[in-house]
TrEMBL record, chain A:
Superkingdom of origin organism: Bacteria
Pfam families cross-referenced by the UniProt entry: CarbopepD_reg_2 (PF13715), Plug (PF07715), TonB_dep_Rec_b-barrel (PF00593)
Domain TonB-dependent receptor-like beta-barrel per the UniProt entry, residue ranges: 385-860
Sorted UniProt keywords: Cell outer membrane, Membrane, Signal, TonB box, Transmembrane, Transmembrane beta strand, Transport
The keyword Chaperone is annotated on this UniProt entry: no
Annotated protein name in UniProt: SusC/RagA family TonB-linked outer membrane protein
Similarity remark: Belongs to the TonB-dependent receptor family.
Organism of derivation: Niastella yeongjuensis
Topological relation to the membrane, as annotated: Multi-pass membrane protein
UniProtKB/TrEMBL annotation, chain B:
Primary localization: membrane
Ranges of residues in domain SusD-like N-terminal: 21-219
Segments crossing the lipid bilayer: none
Ranges where the RagB/SusD domain occurs: 331-418
Keyword Signal: yes
Location of the protein in the cell: Cell outer membrane
Designated name of the protein: Starch-binding protein
Entry-linked InterPro entries: SusD-like_N (IPR033985), SusD_RagB_dom (IPR012944), TPR-like_helical_dom_sf (IPR011990)
Keywords: Cell outer membrane, Membrane, Signal
Entry's Gene Ontology cellular component terms: cell outer membrane
Recorded family membership: Belongs to the SusD family.
Any matching Pfam family: SusD-like_3
């Protein structure tokens, strides 16, 4: 019936019209939402005529029609299509109703908004609802397991610490592999501003400066069709964040949000007891003399069983508290809309003494000056405070000092002072006196203006800034090992990263032809971008007392500063044509000029194209009566990368500061490469999406193939030239993968709903072309290697085949078959990249209760357990204790184990099955026995919330009241033997992933919280 | 659309002048084309050259550590494999410390080559002839020293005498023989001698510094007469160069550039010597990963052998009681000099040269001058062989932490019986494997 009625009206109108004279009449009106909010950009068509228009920013339209009455077809993405019969010329307002089924129908793509069903690119939008309340400081960390093709890992359990974030694999070797982050149109600096030396870890997550609660949604652009519009910035994918904004004509809504959490380690470090340590030491000393009878008889620790144990590990850990309070207001009048939010987060580290604190404020404001001009702003200001401490190779790090020292050694000297052993500091001294304070101020702001020249043609100009500054003040008191000799030392660093961007975009959107069969969405624009980095540092040593901590009162002081600038100039254009709502053809083009490159090759050109077919619109598909939705996508394109290389990378340079006798000196530092140019990624993507069973099951599948060539590679050059490396375009890396996402509504009744979401992503990374092996990592031990034909982040070690049950000596694979063990026998034995990552979410709601169970998993990555590397040493390290794994050593003939006999023998290190190679010798403990499977599945969040019934809420004059309890990382299933498998201690360099080295493990958190809206 | 883009682009070029916009110059570096243009920048380049010579990879610590770790008297207490290999004298071609010394030396040569190439053509009137000659002379001297070090450590090497302006420069150069490499050293020393002034400067090269290096050079060449005569040129200049008493007087109590020094590199807060960090124990802010082994401690502490040279070592507090070297001790200022040539070496050079010329009495006089300063009684040896052995042992303690031992044992051939190394291939370090890969014209050293 429903369909017949308009058809009837239409016929009637046609009949009437054929009788009338052709005349011209103008109809005016306004399109509003249910909530009386004017809708902008709504398409108005006249049935049977090739005229159409769009509403302006007040929802108004005017359209010329031949005669009355007419049938207006009103459509807008996200709303149900409506038809209105117009019989009079009196202006009227018409309402559109939101299409609740397809709230996410509109997605933000580069520089435009498009109907999701018509997009050819691989784009995924994550609504902030799916990650609310999770106690992580940065929104990038919250995307873990939520989107396909995105690998997210926290590098440590330090609050506000570094995050590994990769979209479809590592594209590069020397240049950056981080995505481009855009928040409300502002290009964000993702440079870690922490200067304090913290080992090889990434000191902070710059994205943690943004309060995740201010976010409305996050869109991830993955394939070339989506990213090519960002040209040279887009090769690693783009993360577009849209923050919350007010709506016109809406009542002020105040939202209060707070939670408290308590965290502990998922698993703590374990070390051998004093008695076990003494026993192992004696055993090794006896064995060593057996191996080499020429040595004097062993000196043994007397009464090893009665050696005391000093528990240092427990001192490290605490039950860390997290508190979070937020308040926001949003609303709008008929001309303006606003959102204002304030937030405070304090997070303690589970390992003392690290802390993170953030104050954040946001103001988003939009104002319609008149029917054609709209201006607005988005401003984020935040202040962060971190108490940082170092990990991995720093013997004066807190964790090192606790786990490396032999457990039978007392923590305090007899006189009560802190005891230190070897090069390790006292862990309690560090916990009590380590003073590394980092205060960051971040301003991200944008001012824009929009001018609707015609309803279809709009010009937008945007001026934005991201100003990140960090002020660090460190004091190492004379009570710490690092401050003893210098009588206290202090450092003060001031760092500033400034990104200035100006953009103009001219957008044209129009449908024409009968029923708007043809529609065009096109834009052209330009960008002017400047990145400025500045830093100043001052250091001082020699302090009169430990209470005087400023550099200015040090007896010896020195300072330094650095500054660099780079600029980018771009023009871009994009056009999308849709025929009959079925076929969409996309094309985009961008030209980028960068100051970083050689004068010969400064400009790069990045085209892309894509095609979508909405098969569900075809009669033959509809007649199958199977698909509610069916869509095929294909795209290909180029994007570029220039991040991560120095701002003056193409120039031949002489470095200053090569002083002698306090006189200024200069020396050559870089060989010129006037041909240096863009690193280019070519990507093809094929995808399909369908929903069946009355839209209850939705499936999306993608296959992609990325090939990055002309890598910006530091190619080794012969040292006889006086240079070690030369930055040139050489080499290639490929990433290929599948992505699968499934959404299912399992049960849906009036009171009960159960939905399941599952996603899994697979990526295969391979270095296709490389000048020569690049080995690095683990402080000169070169455990990580980049080699042609293998994935990045590969590990090279001596492969232990077994421990000889007769001799107890380790036997390694003799790769060269020359009968002995030499450096050439090191081989690639795995890599740190997961083969699969994914998430599995089940949501149950019953009346006011919501239960959410979210698992994250990754499979196939290896972790180099450096704690075992150092602490399973067979007593070759006199100053270092043991971990319990050492107790599994071979002891007598017939023992089957992978931990060889303990000894410090150094005889015949070249021989395989020689005692020397058990822990030292040529192998130098670089054995695959410390490389472990890092796969895991973890109950990332489990939350139960209760929303008060609407009847009670309205009585209390509230909009919404919700309380919840949530657990994070409650269960972790893994074979990994270290404290936690989600770890990357050497994350400061993208090519040294997958190390676990004296790093804070992930916290397990329980929290309770409440949301109030009124 | 493409055409529109180009029009738009052209429009932008006109309005913003994008060529200029994209032209960004650094502030802490200078473009190579304008690096050395006048008297001031020439002087800065020479300072940079000394800085390279004293960098961490070269005389700052790494290069000399190769010699003293190989020499058998210094132990490695750390956990890294590269220095452990060196201390065990089981070098492989991928040893990173060997590679970084190689790199540092060629970087030094590059700076010298630039100065030698550019300074003669500068037209700045403020650049006097004296200065012009001095800068070139210093560059020739340092290049000579660099090739001397390459020759004694790796054998014959590729002789690079022109600066590298582009990546393809220096292509196709193969290794020269040891003799050719030493000939290059002598050629550079002769040029330096002609260009440098006859002044005393213990931190920079002068004609006297050239003489001292020539004495060492001729000793290595077994040209005893010339070694003796060049050593005498310094020893005879008693007003400027003398053995200070006691032994510690040349380094203790923060003294620098004493009369003992013929050539030492000076360090300051803007150019630190990180060497102390490896020697000093943690209680004094270092890592003590290089430490004198038991033999050396016993010898230094023996009053009849070490004499007052026991000032070179000290012991940590109980219960550790670990011995550590304290020639480099200025923590945290890092202003310990790097001692390249001391007058004591010239006495021992001349002593050896005289023994070899059968002038035993004079030889013993020189040897005893060094012994006497160390608070020891005169040597009692009477035969050529015994005196040579005494000289060798004297050098061992006199330059315990100065990187002489290994090169000296290799030079005299004593390395066979002292360190039990009989394979002559192992008398030189391996050419770094990374270099062999990067340079198809470079042949490896046999045996690695």
């Amino acid at each position: 019936m429903n369909r017949l009625y308009p058809k009837g009206v239409y016929l009637l109108l046609l009949l009437l019209m054929s009788q009338m004279l052709v005349a011209q009449t103008t109809i005016t009106g306004t399109i509003l939402t249910d909530e009386q909010v004017p809708l902008e950009g709504v398409t108005i068509q006249v049935k049977g005529h090739a005229v159409q228009t769009l509403t302006n920013n007040r929802g108004g339209f005017s359209i010329t029609v031949p005669a009355l009455p007419v049938l207006l077809l009103v459509s807008h993405t996200g709303y149900l299509k409506e038809e209105f019969t117009i019989t009079t010329l009196t202006p009227a307002s018409y309402r559109l109703i939101r299409n609740e089924k397809n709230l996410d129908e509109v997605v933000i793509t580069g520089y435009s908004t498009q109907n999701k069903k018509l997009i050819a690119g691989s784009i995924q939008t994550i609504n902030s609802q799916t990650f609310r309340d999770v106690p992580a400081s940065g929104f990038n960390q919250l995307l873990q397991g939520k989107a396909t093709g995105v690998q997210v890992n926290a590098n440590s359990g330090v609050p506000g610490g570094g995050i590994t974030f990769r979209i479809r694999g590592n594209n590069s070797i020397n240049a950056s592999v981080d995505p481009l982050y855009i928040i409300d149109g502002v290009f964000i600096s993702n440079t870690d501003p922490i200067q304090t030396g913290l080992g090889q870890q990434q000191g902070s997550n710059p994205i943690a400066d943004i309060n995740p609660s201010d976010i409305e949604n996050i869109t991830i652009l993955k394939d070339a069709n989506a990213t090519a519009i960002y040209g040279s910035l887009g090769a690693n994918g783009v993360v577009i964040v849209t923050t919350k904004r007010g709506r016109l004509n809406s009542r002020a809504k105040v939202s209060l949000n707070g939670y408290h959490g308590w965290s502990r380690a998922t698993k703590k470090f374990r070390v051998a007891s004093g008695a076990e340590t003494a026993l192992l030491t004696n055993e090794s000393r006896i064995n060593t003399v057996k191996d080499n009878p020429a040595l004097p008889p062993p000196t043994l620790i007397a009464e090893p069983e009665s050696q005391p144990t000093y528990d240092r590990v427990s001192d490290l850990f605490r039950t860390a508290r997290t508190s979070n309070y937020e308040m926001s207001v949003q609303g709008g009048t008929d001309k303006s809309a606003y959102y204002a939010g304030l937030g405070y987060l304090k997070q303690e580290g589970i390992v003392r003494p690290s802390n993170f604190e953030r104050y954040s404020g946001r103001l988003n404001y939009d104002n319609y000056l008149n029917r054609q001009i709209k201006i607005g702003t988005s401003i984020n200001i935040s202040r962060t405070w971190r108490n940082v401490s170092s990990n991995d190779n720093n013997p004066q790090g807190v964790i090192n000092s606790a786990i490396f020292v032999r457990s039978y050694l007392p923590v305090f000297n007899t006189d009560g002072t802190y005891a230190r052993y070897g090069s390790f500091d006292n862990h309690l001294a560090l916990i009590n006196y380590l003073g590394n304070d980092a205060v960051g101020w971040r301003t991200i702001g944008n001012i824009y203006g929009e001018y609707a020249i015609l309803p279809e043609l709009k010009l937008r100009t945007s001026w934005s800034l991201d100003n990140a500054s960090e002020y660090e003040n460190n004091f190492i008191s004379s009570l710490l090992a690092a401050g003893v000799a210098s009588n206290g030392s202090a450092a003060s660093y001031e760092t500033k990263n400034l990104v200035l961007t100006n953009e103009q975009v001219l957008t044209f959107i129009k449908s024409f032809g009968e029923d708007g069969k043809h529609s065009i969405n096109a834009l052209v624009g330009n960008t002017i971008n400047t990145v400025l980095s500045q830093s100043t540092s001052a250091t001082g040593t020699g302090f009169a007392s430990n209470d005087l901590t400023a550099v200015s009162v040090a007896s010896v002081r020195s300072g330094s500063s650095a500054q660099s600038r780079s600029k980018l100039l771009s023009v871009f254009s994009k056009a999308s044509y849709t025929y009959n709502n079925r076929y969409t053809l996309d094309a985009s083009f961008r030209a980028d000029g960068s100051s970083k490159f050689g004068a010969n090759n400064r400009w790069g050109f990045f085209p892309s194209g894509g095609f979508t077919w909405r098969a569900d619109q075809e009669g033959f598909i509809q007649s199958l009566n199977l698909f509610n939705e069916l869509r095929f996508r294909a795209s290909v394109g180029l994007s570029g990368n220039q991040n991560g290389i120095g701002p003056y990378a193409a120039q031949g340079l002489w470095q200053s500061g090569n002083n002698y006798l306090d006189q200024p000196g200069i020396a050559p530092s870089q060989l010129a490469n006037p041909d240096l140019t863009w690193e280019t990624t070519r990507q093809t993507d094929f995808g399909t999406e369908f929903s069946i069973l009355n839209s209850r099951l939705f499936v999306a599948v993608d296959y992609y193939n990325k090939y990055t060539y002309d890598l910006l590679l530091n190619v080794p050059v012969p040292n006889r030239t006086g240079f070690a490396t030369y930055l040139q375009n050489y080499g290639a890396v490929s990433n290929k993968g599948f992505e699968l996402a499934i959404r299912s509504t399992n049960v849906k009744t009036r009171t009960f709903k159960w939905t399941t979401e599952f996603n899994i992503s697979q990526n295969t990374n391979r270095i296709e072309k490389l000048a020569s092996d690049i080995a690095l990592g683990a402080s000169g031990r070169n455990i990580s290697i980049l080699r042609q034909g293998y994935a990045v982040n590969s590990f090279q070690l001596y492969k232990q085949l077994y421990v000889d049950p007769q001799t107890g000596n380790a036997v390694y694979e003799d790769l060269t078959k020359e009968g002995n063990i030499t450096a050439a026998d090191r081989q690639i034995v795995g890599n740190a990249l997961p083969r699969y990552t994914g998430g599995f979410t089940n949501t149950f709601s019953y009346k006011g209760f919501d239960l959410n169970v979210f698992f994250y998993f990754q499979q196939g990555n290896k972790i180099m357990n450096m704690n075992d590397f150092f602490l399973v040493h067979g007593n070759t390290q006199a100053n270092i204790g043991f971990v319990p794994r050492q107790l599994e050593r071979w002891q007598k003939p017939g023992d089957i184990t992978d931990i060889p006999r303990v000894t410090t023998s150094s005889l015949t290190p070249e021989a395989n099955n020689s005692a020397a190679n058990n822990y030292g010798g040529n192998v130098a403990n670089l054995s695959s026995r410390y490389l472990e499977d890092g796969s895991f599945i973890r109950l990332r969040t489990l939350s139960l919330s209760y929303t008060l019934p609407a009847s009670i809420i309205s009585k209390l004059k509230f909009n919404n009241i919700r309380a919840y309890i949530q657990g994070t990382n409650l269960i972790t299933i893994t074979k990994y033997g270290g404290p936690d498998p989600e770890v990357s201690s050497q994350s400061g360099n993208q090519n040294t992933a997958g190390y676990d080295w004296a790093t804070v493990p992930q916290p397990k958190t329980i929290q309770v919280g409440v949301n109030l809206v009124f | 659309m493409k055409r529109f883009t180009y029009i738009y682009l052209a429009f932008l070029m006109l309005t913003t002048g994008c060529k200029k916009f994209l032209h960004v110059q650094p502030q802490q570096q200078v473009d190579a084309s304008v690096a050395i243009t006048d008297a001031v920048s020439a002087e800065a380049a020479v300072n940079g050259l000394y800085n390279r010579l004293g960098s961490d990879g070269y005389y700052g610590s790494n290069f000399i550590s190769l010699s003293y770790l190989m020499g058998g008297d210094i132990q490695w207490t750390g956990s890294q494999s590269a220095p452990a290999q060196i201390a065990a004298r089981a070098l492989t071609a991928d040893n990173s410390n060997v590679a970084s010394a190689w790199t540092a030396i060629y970087r030094t040569i590059l700076s010298a080559n630039y100065i030698i190439d550019i300074v003669p053509g500068l037209t700045d009137p403020l650049l006097t002839d004296a200065k012009r000659n001095q800068y070139q002379g210093e560059a020739y001297f340092i290049r000579a020293l660099a090739y001397f070090d390459l020759a004694r450590a790796w054998g014959g090497v590729q002789l690079i005498t022109r600066p590298t302006y582009s990546k393809s420069d220096q292509e196709g150069i193969r290794r020269s023989s040891v003799a050719e490499t030493y000939a290059q050293v002598l050629g550079d020393l002769d040029k330096a001698e002609a260009l440098l002034p006859v002044t005393v400067n213990r931190n920079k090269a002068t004609q006297k510094t050239v003489w001292a290096l020539k004495a060492r050079f001729y000793l290595y060449q077994r040209d005893w007469a010339k070694a003796e005569s060049y050593a005498s040129k310094i020893i005879d200049d008693a007003a400027n160069y003398k053995l200070l008493k006691p032994y510690s007087a040349f380094f203790a109590n923060n003294v620098t550039a004493t009369a003992e020094s013929v050539f030492e590199l000076g360090y300051s807060t803007s150019f630190k010597n990180g060497h102390y960090n490896w020697w000093l124990p943690p209680a004094l802010g270092g890592r003590r990963e290089w430490a004198p082994n038991g033999n050396l401690v016993t010898l230094l502490n023996d009053p009849a052998i070490g004499g007052n040279r026991n000032a070179l070592i000290a012991q940590t507090a109980p219960p550790g009681n670990l011995w550590y070297g304290k020639l480099y001790y200025r923590n945290p200022t890092g202003t310990d000099p790097a001692y390249l040539i001391r007058v004591a070496e010239l006495y021992l050079i001349r002593s050896e040269a005289r023994v070899q010329q059968s002038k035993l009495t004079e030889a013993l006089q020189d040897l005893n001058a060094v012994r006497e300063r160390a608070g020891l009684s005169p040597a009692t040896a009477t035969t050529t062989g015994d005196v040579l052995l005494d000289i060798e042992n004297e050098r061992r303690l006199e330059f315990a932490f100065e990187g002489d031992r290994w090169f000296n044992l290799v030079r005299t051939g004593s390395v066979k019986n002292v360190l039990n190394i009989t394979d002559p291939n192992k008398f030189v370090f391996p050419i770094p494997v990374s270099e062999i890969i990067a340079d198809k014209y470079l042949d490896p050293n046999l045996g690695y």
